[in-house]
Amino acid sequence: MLTGIAQQGKPAVSVIDLTAPPIAPEQLATLLSPEEQQRAERFRFPLLRERFRIGRGMLRTLLGSYCGISPEALHFGYSEYGKPSLAGIPECFFNVSHSGELWACAIGTGTAFGIDIEHMRPLLDRDALARRFFAPAEHHAINLYPEADRSAAFYRCWTRKEAYLKALGFGLSKGLNSFEVDCSEAATSIIRDPVSQTQWTAHDVSLPAGYAGALVIAARTPDAR
Questions:
Q1: Confidence of residue 173 (pLDDT cuts 50, 70, 90)
Q2: What is the DSSP letter of 142?
Q3: Where are the alpha helices (DSSP H) in the chain?
């Protein structure tokens, strides 16, 4: 498990390999609520059921440690767009993402954030996807790279945009082309959203080769604790 400690207003980020979690899957499964167990059973394939249980069990473990509460005692609430929160602990924020064999979680207080990771699988329709869903400036920036580097630029753009939408809590109800991110290799960049009055920054998440990840954070307000 790769774990980052919250520093300078940033949330702590933990990344686990779903094929080799730090806690036995059988033990993690015992932490789930009856509702979560039912959700797991809805997955058709055993591998997906197990990975759901691992992710939820790790989320409960990490949140319980962060908040000083038994993992089994945690209760979750959901916004109208499906963004989860901790019932009764509004000061604790968290966000999760999973792709391929990796699962990631960010936990913090004081400001909103979102995290997204993606397995960088080959995309035959990459350019069409960028043209359709990205802002024109982003599509242009990706095509300035040599062909061999465009896939990485595409996924940098994609994860930064997804992490921003998750931070807002709107899901895909806000169009991906309604704001712009930096597609460069800069580890930290600014989100450009004409309708947002908050400054947002995107930070790369350290991941194994073949994955891209971003953590988007809102500027801390003066009265935030």
A1: confident
A2: H
A3: 25-29, 34-41, 46-67, 126-133, 136-143, 147-168
Same-domain status, 126 and 89? no
Contacts of 166 (CB under 8 A, 6+ apart): 83, 95, 97, 114, 115, 116, 216
The alpha helices in 68-133, defined as continuous H runs, are: 126-133
Q: What are phi and psi of 200, to 5 degrees?
A: -120, 140
Q: What's the rounded Cα separation, in Å, for the pair 171 and 187?
A: 24
pLDDT at 4: 46
> Which amino acid, 145?
Y
- Asked whether residue 90 falls in the same domain as residue 160, the answer is no
Of residues 63, 85, 81, 84, the one with CA closest to residue 73: 63
Q: Average pLDDT of 49-54? A: 97
Q: Which residue has the tokens 């242009």?
A: 140
Q: What is the CATH number of the domain that holds 214?
A: 3.90.470.20
pTM, 2 dp: 0.92
Torsion-angle region of 211 (φ positive above 0: left; ψ -120 to 50: alpha; else: beta): beta
The answer to whether 119 and 99 have CB atoms below 8 angstroms apart is yes
| pLDDT at residue 47 greater than cutoff 60 | yes
Asked if residue 44 and residue 66 are part of one domain, the reply reads yes
Kindly report, residue by residue over 88-118, the tens digit of the pLDDT: 998 899 999 999 999 999 999 989 999 999 9
Neighbours of 56 (CB within 10 A): 23
Q: Is the pLDDT of residue 2 over 60?
A: no
